[in-house]
Amino acid sequence: KAMETADTATSYLYIITFLHLLHILVTMIYMSKMTIGSFSGRFNSQENLSLRLGAIFWHFLGLLWLYLLLFLLFIH
Predict the structure, then answer these.
(1) Could you please report the per-residue DSSP string of 58-73?
(2) Which 3 state secondary structure label does DSSP give 6?
(3) How far apart are CA 76 and CA 20, in angstroms?
(4) What distance in Å separates the CA atoms of residue 27 and residue 62, rounded to the nearest whole number?
(5) pLDDT by residue (tens digit) across 12-55?
(6) CB of 71 within 8 A of CB of 54?
């Protein structure tokens, strides 16, 4: 049904979907790099900024998903 309409909303849907998938791909690459670096002993007490930023990002996403879940449950 989305292909039958010729408005800009459909284009925005595809753009938002593509950007979301791109964001997931970049995040998975970064988290994989961080995990491999963690197991290989690359991080120490002075050199751990990317590990800390990854942890902050991961916890932010967890809180965001919790908020979205509660919002969508109680919006009705």
Answers:
(1) HHHHHHHHHHHHHHHH
(2) coil
(3) 26
(4) 14
(5) 888 989 999 999 999 899 989 988 988 998 888 888 888 888 88
(6) no
